[in-house]
Predict the structure.
Amino acid sequence: MVTFQEIQKFMQGKLDEGRSQKFINVSADSLEEALQQASIELGLGIKKIDYEILDPGNKGMFGVGKKPTIILAYKAAGVEALHEESFGDMSFDDDEEAPVDGKFFIRKDEVGLMLRVSPPLKGGARVTERQVYEAIANRFHGTYDKALVGKILKRADDEFVPIGAYDHNSLEDALITIEIVDYEMKAYIMIRPPGPRGADPRAEDIIAFLRANNVVYGHLEEDIENIAATPPYNERLLVAQGQKPENGDDGRIVFNFETETSKIRLKEIDGKVDYKELNKINNVVEGQVLAKLVPPKRGANGHTVTGKALPAKDGKPAALEIGNNVKLSNDGSQALASANGQVLLIGGRITVEPVYMVNGNVDLKSGNILFLGSVVVKGSVEDGFAVKAAGNIEILGSVGRCELDAEGDIIVRQGINGKSSGQVRAGGSIWSKFIENSNVEASGYVVVSDGIINSMVNSDKKIICRGKRASIVGGNLRASEIITAKTLGSIAGMETLLEVGNDPKTKSKLEELQARKAADDKSLEEIKLNILTLEKAKKVKKELTPEKETFLRNLISQKNEIVNSIEEVSDEIKDTESYLAELKSNGKISASARVFPGVKVLIKDAPLEVRNEFKAVTFVYENGLVKVTRFAETEDEKEFGLDKG
């Protein structure tokens, strides 16, 4: 029997253990990784760790808004129950090095008095003869073999062995009663102690009793085994428990974009919030997965302890509703973008809009615009803001000191005034009423109606000024083929530099490619030399150290990457050189009205500085020199309606 002093000692030990408990905070990308890290830091198996989730974290979307999972982890405490006949079996489920004392169990069976002894673990205390003798005295008043008890204690093989006989009378066996409650979801038994010649119940006796009383499901077999090992008499004992039905989860849709268009996500740069970057547009590209369908789960039927089935409901399926420019995958489980643009959830339907409309100015209210389609701004673009599009940009108002960047055309109805720092780039052509104090670059045409003033303008094709006030004054304009306007320069003699017949941007690109290839060639030679050295050493020594073997594999991988890079750059160099070689146009510069002194003309490598005023002339390249000829209307001037008056 357990004494008060032993209980007091046990509780004091648990108090001391709590004081010495080690708590750690762990942060990781997921709960599983956090538990693995806690297992390493605490030196315990995951099953032996208790934890609290301080922050569940967030996976984010496309890497944005990602937060780690944070847990408070500590060693789990576990104590096996004290039994009257096994007061020596106090064991703690702490870490793997904690000692576990030996245990013993005494029961009266039909064949006689039975003793079972379990060995101690990890240096725990063995069961003593005194402990066993005291326990036997409380349960048995007959004779038993003490010598055999000593042998069983030494062997400690965890098996029941008869140590004494008695005149068994089955009428005095332990009496079991049953109680089925909670709508047949639980079954309890109570065991009355046996008489002097009666036996304790065995596990199979308890299970047979349950079945005889129609308790056929949910037997708590481990609990029943423990009850049979050391029967707790006159106590209400749970021995069977039913299974409640679990309805299946409904199917759901996981969206890979922000469905709340009114939600503003501010971007932080160097610890400061950038109120221009409102991130209000959900850009997507063709083929991108926009949403996934999570199928419903089947329900799990339940059972009462008497075997009655409790049916569960299966989850209801969800449906992917799609709109324009969205398609379903072959199995219908994913919604995919079929075009670049802005993804929206409109009336429950996933839709991709290829055109983004700004119903006013681009300012603090709208923030910067970045869109994988075309953008239409019904107002103006204010200073300091940016509009970038994978398609076209059309602005019905004006453009200030800002950045415009489009893969297609850029159309500005009221003109561009960059105030010496604005930047406008187009993969197609640029159309504007005027360009003033701006940096402009187009892969196609640059077409202006009222003139270009003090600006840097580059065109891979032609710069055309058309209209009654179509003049080019100041700045530096470069075009591959033609620069044409009504007036070039000004009466004040402002320096105006005009260049045609070359493609400076492509030449600069060629130089960059050649420098990159030279650097790759040099790196490749160094890597080849290192590989050769290691391979020679491997032949001589038959093998390399693990570190050098890993280094050799990394070098071979780097070599393959650089070889592929050199091949790609070489192909690009050839294409660029072919393009430059195929440039047939020498270039022309035309003025339908006047050319003023101060204009500098450069056609291919031939320069000409205008010192006298010219009227209605065209500058052409001939025999390595710039030749002044009579103005001749070009096809472009006819197309754009250039005013020659």
Remarks:
- The longest helix spans residues 504-541.
- Residues 78-95, 273-278 have pLDDT under 50 and may be disordered.
- Residues 543 and 549 are 8 Å apart (CA to CA).
